[in-house]
Amino acid sequence: MQNVYSYQQLYTFSKNIFLQIGCSEANAAIAVKVLLSADLRGVDSHGIARLTGYIRLWEVNRINANPAISIVHETPSTATVDGDKGLGLVVAPAAMQMAIDKAKNVGTGWVSVKNSNHFGIAGIHAMMALENDMIGIAMTNASPLVAPTFSIERLLGTNPIAVAIPAGNKAPFVADFATTTAANGKLEILQRKNEATPAGWVQTSAGQPSTDASEVRNGGALLPLGGDKEHGSHKGYMLGSIVDIFSAILSGANYGPGVPPFPAYVPMPENMPGEGIGHFFGAMRIDAFRPAADFKTHMDKWIDRFSSAKTVAGEQNVVIPGEPETAMEAERTKNGIPLQASVVNELVELGKKFNLSL
Amino acid sequence: MQNVYSYQQLYTFSKNIFLQIGCSEANAAIAVKVLLSADLRGVDSHGIARLTGYIRLWEVNRINANPAISIVHETPSTATVDGDKGLGLVVAPAAMQMAIDKAKNVGTGWVSVKNSNHFGIAGIHAMMALENDMIGIAMTNASPLVAPTFSIERLLGTNPIAVAIPAGNKAPFVADFATTTAANGKLEILQRKNEATPAGWVQTSAGQPSTDASEVRNGGALLPLGGDKEHGSHKGYMLGSIVDIFSAILSGANYGPGVPPFPAYVPMPENMPGEGIGHFFGAMRIDAFRPAADFKTHMDKWIDRFSSAKTVAGEQNVVIPGEPETAMEAERTKNGIPLQASVVNELVELGKKFNLSL
Hints:
Two copies of one chain form a homodimer. Chain A is α+β, with helices and mostly antiparallel strands. In chain A, 37% of the residues lie in helices and 17% in strands. The first copy, chain A, contains ten helices and twelve strands. The radius of gyration of chain A is 20 Å and the shape is globular. The two termini of chain A are 17 Å apart.
């Protein structure tokens, strides 16, 4: 069963929750905007369904509702930021804004962040660059669920990469993807339905191939994009590693198996090598390379050419990254956001704690 | 049958060839160093086996042996470079050096290049950053052999990405990979042996799954990393697209199906939207984020942890990107470079044209 809520309803509820845990008015507004952008864009696993999870992290003192976000090191085109244990939903937009400001000055800006937490969907942060006629880049490391090629151990998170690129008359190009064969959210959906995964998504705790959607819960692992060595899983492993290093070893955050978990009931890793979760952001001014109008003309041509490609019999068009999400956002802004009954129940319970009703 | 040649033999021969087509002493030396780095690192498909191909491009006037490589647009952290139809083997190191110089000044440097040609292996350009205690990034678009998810048409090249990251006592982390399930070189090896490919590498000209290593030659296509939608091929397609856009739409090079071919006998595409092939380079100074010594200490720890991961029964260790290539380089520098008989024959024929013997 699904219930449909308007954006405004969910916005007001979530913002009040963030205010109740002590966020400032401005930070609560930013956090909700980032959180609900996932619901609007159809990434249901990363939206309001996670609100309870964020609050649980606050309850066990793993999140600081009033962070003093600061630059600890910088050059004209770079900064290293300490998120002060803040919500990633707040720290990430602040850091991305710094990247944008630096790009305004010297063409590009690059910011590595330590001491943060989960930041919602990567794409929304990268997209902040668009209105400035910039290309935006966002990535984050995450708690270890992924086994590198040949490994039994889970050493990497799903470590997503987002790249947002402005176009002219067309919707922007927005790629936002986990560096695994499938995102954990997709696995959870199959788990709930009690269905098998395709081959190449997960392995058992002994490193053997499996199609059981519960493997990760049972000590198995998600697999890097590619699935196995023969199909290029070393490339997915490399991508996940690059995200880990840019996000955490540049900034001083935790990395590899030392990245803290999202569920508040999971104990923190032992011997953590850094502070919090790490992110990495980039902004490149288009006109630092060529006039923005020229670039956009060619982006529109690029999009036209790919959209109109001949497709395999029976298949849809070639999808331009971000197009389905742009369409979903328009649809849900107008018609509301459907929530699963289990998510609604969780939110109702969460509201009771703070005397708020959904 | 294989013949083994010393690096110095191949260096002298190749350099003389480049001098014969009119390269300057300095450019011939750079071109050979880049070209043979592929042979040393074990990427045999991109090394001296391609020398004849480069010379054929010069013969049909698609390569300018004496390019005036110039910056056509710049900011403190960016540049757009016109390669003047030069050898990519020469244009790429020049552009990467510009990125490094900008990083020295403002923390990072980013260079997009148009009007270039094939640049050899991406990794060697990214690695130029290492000796400067910088992270290096290199990518290039290439002629269309890859069908995006759902497409029958070949719209992207194998569009590789390389990222080189310095470590302390350990060998550097060097990722260098095509954004396809398998690089074209691997396909060519199977073709020669008349062997089938694994599933997920290629499709027929009608877009159907195939394991025939000759598909690409017969109008089929290589598949993006992931293989098919269920296994994440839209992610490989997004990665290839990002490389195409950064390399060509930022710079004004050709993109998508308009990228010129490597074989000189293949006609140029119609209605080309830009100039030549495009590349993109980045350099980030480590100490623009944190002291280089701290970074390297943690990179060594990262490498140690991943190297020592428990592995699947019967499998080798988790491989650190670049480690096998570093070992191969040491081995071949000492013991020489094995060349296939067919490559040797081609080189002997090439030498005859210029009165040079191998």
